Amino acid sequence: MKIAIVGYGRMWKLVEDYAKKRGHEIAIIIDPIYNTSKENLLNTEFDVIIEFSIPGAAMENMKFYAENNMKVVMATTWWYDKVEEIKELFKKSNWAILWSSNFSLWVHLFWKMIENAWKIINNFDDYDVFWHEFHHNKKADSPSWTAITTANIILDNVDRKKELITEELKHRAIKPEELHFSSTRWWNIPWTHSVYFDSLFDTIKIEHTARTREWFALWSVVCAEWLNKKTWYYEISDFVKEII
Length: 244
Prior knowledge:
By secondary structure, this protein is an alpha/beta fold. Helix content is 34%, strand content 25%. The chain has helices spanning 12-21, 55-67, 83-91, 105-121, 145-157, 214-227, 236-241, and strands spanning 2-6, 25-30, 48-51, 72-74, 96-99, 128-135, 163-165, 178-185, 191-198, 203-210, 232-235.
């Protein structure tokens, strides 16, 4: 394939390296550092865009892609309150989008484990649940979108949990129906996501630790290969269903 990369951030070089290792060509890199903009895509021959940019740019970029019948793997986060709008745009388009809050295959396996665990533990009221995540101090969002996705999985599968709490609890105890997710940002610590199932007698922990960004880059390229044969709107769960 010919791949267009949008965003000159910390991921772009890894995406470029993995794309070339898998036999693809980088058609263009869109970023001010290259003096290029999304309009340059109109005069470039390519198959799929991979975008790791910033939330402020992502919405306008996706509208542009849909209007101009372009395929995009969207790896930029924190625009998901506009998902329905984007879905409608690509539903009317001849081309395609695939997005995810996390492009690590192993995180999706982690989510499947949590979902399946709660289908069992939901029947045992003795267990409560909480979450904590560690990220390096360059991480811009807290909680991460990985945390938000995990929380929604739990809320969807646990009858007794109704509300997500991510802020500090001041001068009160947590309510039984609340699900508490906490976050720490600290130096160069590996990205660590931990779900705890706790009872009076024991604790069960499911944990995922990521030590490198390379998985995100690799799987964004693999997703681009998959999307190249598709049209319309996809979430990464559609891709994962085919390989798990």
